[in-house]
Amino acid sequence: MKYVGMQTQIWRNNSRSVILLILFPVVLYCLVFLFFILLKMYQPDAYFDPVTEFLNTVPWITAGVLLWFLIAYASHTSMINKATGSRPLERTENKRVYNLVENLAMTAGMKMPKINIIEDDSLNAFASGINNNTYTVSLSRGIIDKLNDTELEGVIAHELTHIRNRDVRLLVVSIIFVGIFAFVTQAMLRSIRFSGRGGKKGNGAIIIIIVLAAFGWLLSTIFRFALSRKREYMADAGAVEITKNPEGLASALRKISEDSRIEAVQRSDVAQMFIDNPGEKKKYDFFSSMFSTHPPIEKRIGILEGM
What we know:
The chain has one domain (6-305). Helix content is 69%, strand content 6%. It has eleven helices and four strands, in the order ααβαβββαααααααα. The chain has a four-stranded mixed β-sheet with strand order 1-2-4-3, sandwiched between helices. α1 (6-42) runs antiparallel to α7 and α5 (149-164) packs across α8 (246-258). The chain starts with 5 loop residues before the first helix and ends with a helix. The mean pLDDT is 81.
């Protein structure tokens, strides 16, 4: 399979990703409005207008969402480092890795990112950051020690493509939006508690909240996973564009698939950032593929070997 019109594919993929991200707040406000509609249906004698209640709630939800977003956006680097156990890799520690990253960044025409290392013998890597000051490529000790230069170049080029295509920024934003659904659910629960709508009717409202929250989480999760799956293929293709060597990345993915489990990674939202999700089962069927953050690694290898 050959990738023709790379820039066109990147533009299309980015456009679809923007659409997915726009859907997050749209779904959020729709669920809040639906909550008040259902609450009125469940409590027909209650003296409140669903539209008025919704409009009165919008500023508070918007303020809370923006605050949540800004805090998460500003602290994502420290959060990711803590969740993955990664730390900065100094040039004096491993000149080989620095030379590979530097040469590939120059080939790709981009600023060299920071380099982190994860002290784990398993093989995995990921890119993170939201701008040139925070873009980082993180490599496990195992992937550095067990891959040859050609294979490691393929992995690094894959992560550089994620940075170049702004995948990492969009992924961070999508992770934040998923967390916002949990925040809004808590806000609605508190509104029931302090509005005087307690008792059995209050319990009914809580059930409505739980159902809506589950529905919103399901939609947001599907959106986020779909965004990630599309971009893995593009990052593989971008790596080949940079290295001119699809066999190198294919060989690296084959080795990574045998042992990609990073012990420090326990959070599913962070795990999906890796070149191979360390927390994901490798059995793929129609249902599980909907919730998979990455396409089957065997399929990725097959595409690369056919290039």
